[in-house]
Design goal:
about 50 residues; mainly alpha
Length: about 50
């Protein structure tokens, strides 16, 4: 897996941390990976 550095608004990070706190994701990285995955799937679906 590659490492990518991104800059996020504080509000996004707080929202991600809340999801992790609620145990919906094990950590920030996994929450972001799932968000990117879902975004890519949606974009692929909308471009068909």
């Amino acid at each position: 897996m590659k490492v990518v550095t991104v800059h996020l608004p504080e509000a996004y990070l707080e929202a991600i941390d809340e999801l992790v706190k609620r145990r919906l994701y094990p950590n920030r990285a996994e929450a972001i990976r799932m968000a990117v995955r879902d975004f890519i799937k949606e974009e692929a679906r909308s471009s068909e």
